[in-house]
Structures are given as C-alpha cells and as structure tokens.
Amino acid sequence: MLLDLLHEKKVAHEEQKRQDNSSKDLFTSLLSVRDDDSSVMMSDEEIIDNIIVVMITGYDTTSVLLTFLVRLLANNDAICFDISREQEEISKSKALGEDLTWEDLTKMKYTWRVAFEMLRINPPVMLSAAMTQMDGSIFQNPTVFDPARLEKNTPSPPPFSLLAFGAGQRMCPGMELKLWKYLVLIHRLGLVDTVPSGSIVNKVEYF
What compartments host this protein (predicted)? Predict the structure, then answer.
C-alpha cells in the first residue's frame, strides 16, 4: 500500500515541480531531499521506513502520554478540575458533535502545560532526557508534578533541557502531530469531574 502511495506521490511531485507548486506533505518533502550535487539522497525503501517510523511513534507515544494522564486525573482532583473547566469553556461555544478548530486547540493552554509536564516526568522514549528533565538544578522539585512551572510568567528552562521530542536536527518530526492529537483526544474523552470519593465520572460522553 505504501509503495503504491509513494508512486502516486512521485507522479504528483513531478507535476508540482512543472507547475511551480510548493505545497508539500511528508511524502513529497522526503522526495525533495537532495545531496549537494542534486542527486537523490533517499531510496524508496528509506522513504517508506521514515513514514512508518512517523506513523508508529506518533500513535504509540500519544497512547503512553494519555495512559499517564488518565492515571493523573484519577489521583489529582485539582488538575482534573482545571482541565475540565478549560475544556468546558471550549465546549460552550461548540454545537453537539461539532469539530474542533485550530483556534479551539490554541485555547487549551493549561491542558498543553499538563502534557509537557507529564512528558518531562515520564518521557515516552527513555533516552538521556531524564538526566536534564529530572535535574534539580534546572527544575525546582523535579519529582513534583507542577504545570505552573511552564507558565509564561515563569523563567523558561534552558535550551535542550526538555528533550521528550529530541532537539536540533534530530527533533521528532511528529512532535506537533502528537500534541494536537493529545489535545483533541482529551476534549473528546468528555468533560470530567471528580466526585467526593475521588473517582472520575464522565459528565458528557465518551468519544
């Protein structure tokens, strides 16, 4: 299937070049990669391998993040309430079943900070990230879950200290895809609240 799609993208890419159309997706971006002498740098097999990597890591890492988040919501009433309140404000402007827009996603600032704090403490890919993300000289009380440390009025962490997605030329190309999916899925899980016992109940609907 991917080979057939790659062939279609090659044909479309050649047509785009003739029409001087700069529109690109991941396939055509990889097809456009050239060496210094303008020769093709990636074989069909290498392009497909890169596509598969993006597909797998984009889903697996999101599921890891959501698993940790559900556990957090079940054990932290304050964060559960704040996320619920933010999502409820967005829902008030939407008709039942209406799709989220880019503007809606940009309003999920607290939910976004919770995601990054979760990734700081529990990076999906355990590389050397823990060496900086759990360093007390960089993050005060590093074992404490605190989304407030990522607010605008707080000092920004030094470069290359948050490495859940890598950095520089090796930064994960699916970083934004993963985070947007996380925001959408949190919203579609339904508004959540806590009852006195601390268990999570769903007030609207499951996706």
Answer: Membrane
Per-residue CA distances from 187 to 54, 126, 150 (Å): 23, 27, 21
| pLDDT digits 0-9 by tens, 13-30 | 666 665 655 656 777 777
- Give me the DSSP letters along the chain: -HHHHHHHHHHHHHHHHHTT-----HHHHHHT-B-TTS-B---HHHHHHHHHHHHHHHHHHHHHHHHHHHHHHHH-HHHHHHHHHHHHHHHTTS-TTPPP-HHHHHT-HHHHHHHHHHHHHS-SS-STHHHHHT-TTTSSSTTS--GGGGSTTSPPPPTTS--TT--GGGS-TTHHHHHHHHHHHHHHT--EEE-TT--EEESS---
Q: Which two tokens stand for residue 124?
A: 């999906």
Where do the domains of the chain lie, and which CATH numbers do they carry?
A: 1-42 (no CATH), 54-202 (1.10.630.10)
| Distance between start and end Cα atoms, the chain | 29
Please give the structure tokens belonging to residue 138. Answer: 């960089």
133 within 8 A of 161, measured Cβ to Cβ: yes
pLDDT per residue as tens digits for the range 122-149: 776 655 556 778 888 888 888 888 898 8
